[in-house]
Automatic annotation (TrEMBL):
Keyword flag Protein biosynthesis: no
The keyword Transmembrane helix is assigned to this record: yes
Family: Belongs to the amiloride-sensitive sodium channel (TC 1.A.6) family.
This protein's GO CC annotations: plasma membrane
Name of encoding gene: LOC115875198
Membrane topology: Multi-pass membrane protein
Cell compartment(s), UniProt: Membrane
Main location as per UniProt: membrane
Protein name, entry field: Sodium channel protein Nach-like
GO molecular function, one term: ligand-gated sodium channel activity
Organism, scientific name: Sitophilus oryzae (Rice weevil)
């Protein structure tokens, strides 16, 4: 049956060369020549098609340099501000009286006040300070997020930006560095102390603050309480402050700190979204790696790696991972994590953590800062932090180099060149197969 089909197909197909292969009237040498020619054409076509397919799957994008900077709207840096001391003494006194029924003249008052100070300023590096409290039954079921939120100082100050048409304000966030405030961040909702994993919906801000190249004055300034020193983390609006962020800028009493940032940005064309993350070697912010988090960023990926180590080692997560699932550590659990805190400062390669590059990559390079200390007058009664953006003249653009349409065109060109095939030829081949089977069945019935 197969031999008959081959003969029938070769006689009726319009694919170049096949009719000579099946023609019994020509010499064997001629038929051998045509068999070799057609087989070589098929082999060459297969090789080139396979090569183009591998290219499409492995590396179909290219990064080019853009210089049309006069039309750019540049993303302004996000900031995360953290008080050096995260405890308001009066709020802490009220909390102790309500929660533990202990007044300030009681011997246990200082004991609880010290616990609140340690917990409110806790990081992986300082969890060991909680060891004296791990066997205290009055603290075993305490809601740590509620505690640090209720005793945290109010953020009182004035935020001014050059973006007069956009309202910008600080939002409370819970980070690996403790309770802080963030502005112009895409993920401030995710890090909110009140975030609920099942019910909360993230707002999409896409970095509200942007700077046009022609705007020569692009900045934000925050004037705060002179008695409350603040640490500032500057990062992309698609990132968050975390345990291994670059060291923050500390602004103390009567100090005015000013710094500008240079932007290096790689942005991606919308049409690369139909490629898989493996093909483009990057991920967009709405393409999470796991179901734990609804978004993706490289810094959030770092956080999730440390979270997995914490759960694997001690069976629980620190309280500041409110947006991640799992059991929250009690004080004994936090003390357990203090024994492995050195792991959280190691490189991702050491931790066996794979965090793909984001498709929209934004990096801010700091310029030389200026620090002024005011001794007298109006400026001596406040703390000022000013950060600005120096508009770039070069950006990097990731776009499709060899997309699906190009793949189809290349397949058609190869098949046409080597075999004279087209879409109609493929349809004809299917028709001949079905027609042969139909005739074969009809003859069987007869």
């Amino acid at each position: 049956m197969i031999a008959k089909f081959e003969e029938y197909f070769c006689e009726n197909s319009s694919i170049h060369g096949l009719k000579f292969v099946g023609d019994k009237r020509i010499l064997r040498v001629e038929r051998l020549f045509w068999i070799i020619a057609v087989a070589s054409a098929f082999a060459s076509g297969y090789y080139l098609i396979q090569s183009n397919w591998d290219h499409y799957r492995a590396n179909p994008t290219v990064v080019t340099i853009r210089k049309d900077y006069r039309n750019w709207e540049n993303p302004f840096p996000a900031a995360t501000a953290c008080f050096v001391d995260r405890v308001d003494k009066e709020k802490a006194r009220i909390y102790i009286e309500k929660k533990f029924g202990v007044t300030s003249d009681n011997k246990k008052f200082d004991y609880y006040m010290n616990f609140i100070n340690i917990l409110s300023n806790a990081t992986y590096a300082t969890f060991s300070h909680l060891e004296p409290y791990q066997n205290d039954g009055t603290l075993s079921n305490i809601n740590m997020i509620e505690l640090v939120t209720q005793v945290h100082p109010d953020l009182s100050g004035i935020l001014v930006t050059s973006h007069t048409h956009v309202k910008a304000d600080w939002e409370m966030v819970l980070t690996e560095n403790g309770l802080c405030f963030s502005v112009n961040s895409e993920f401030s909702d995710l890090l909110s102390p009140s975030y609920k994993r099942k019910s909360s919906k993230l707002r999409t801000t896409k970095g509200n603050l942007k700077c046009h190249y022609l705007n020569g004055l692009c900045y934000a300034r925050y004037d705060s309480d002179p008695e409350m020193p603040i640490m500032y983390y500057i990062h992309s609006y698609l990132d968050i402050a975390h345990a291994t962020s670059e060291p923050p800028f500390l602004v103390g009493k009567s100090e005015e700190f000013e710094i500008n940032f240079k932007l290096t940005e790689t942005y991606s064309s919308p049409n690369i979204r139909y490629l898989t993350p493996q093909q483009r070697n990057c991920r967009f912010d709405n393409e999470p790696l796991t179901n734990n988090i609804p978004v993706y960023s490289k810094s959030i990926c770092y956080v999730e790696c440390r979270y997995r180590i914490a759960v694997k080692t001690c069976g629980c997560k620190p309280f500041f991972y409110n947006f991640l699932g799992g059991k929250v550590c009690n004080i004994k659990g936090l003390v357990c994590l203090s024994q492995i805190h050195h792991l959280f400062n190691q490189s991702l390669q050491t931790l066996d953590c794979a965090c793909p590059q984001p498709c929209d990559l934004i990096v801010y390079l700091k310029d030389t800062p200026q620090l002024t200390k005011w001794e007298t007058g109006f400026f001596g009664e406040r703390i000022t932090f000013r950060w600005g953006l120096l508009s770039p003249t070069t950006k990097y653009h990731r776009k499709v180099l060899f997309g699906f349409q190009d793949l189809i065109v290349s397949f058609g060109g190869i098949l046409s060149l080597f075999l004279g095939m087209s879409f109609i030829s493929v349809t004809e081949s299917v028709f001949l197969l079905l027609d042969f089977l139909y005739q074969h069945l009809v003859k069987k019935k007869v």
